[in-house]
Amino acid sequence: SLVRIVRQRTSLNIFNQFTHLAAQNPSGDFWATGYLIVSGAQPPSAQLLRDYINQTRKRQGILK
């Protein structure tokens, strides 16, 4: 529950200082809801990272 409080308060502070970010993000949460874990000897491909970012932004309501 501590992480939830930190997320809420930092989101509020960020959106208050950077109002254009609040207008672009209808979720009200500055932080992404998930995280990407990749294992192996090779770094993830640029396309995999782009896809993950786009999916996260769609969940946040930033992209349609």
Q: How much helicity do the residues have?
A: 55-70%
Instruction: Give the CA-based shape.
Output: globular
Largest sheet descriptor: none
Structural class: mainly alpha
Mean pLDDT: 89
Quaternary structure annotation? single chain
Compute the number of helices. Answer: 3
Describe the protein.
The protein has 64 residues and is mainly alpha-helical. Helices cover 58% and strands 0% of the residues. The protein is built from 3 helices and no strands. The radius of gyration is 14 Å and the shape is globular. The mean pLDDT is 89.
What's the short version?
The chain has about 60 residues and is mainly alpha-helical. About 60% of the residues lie in helices and about 0% in strands.
Salient structural properties:
single chain, 64 residues, mainly alpha, 3 helices, 0% strand
List the helices and strands and how they pair.
Elements: H1 2-17, H2 19-24, H3 46-60
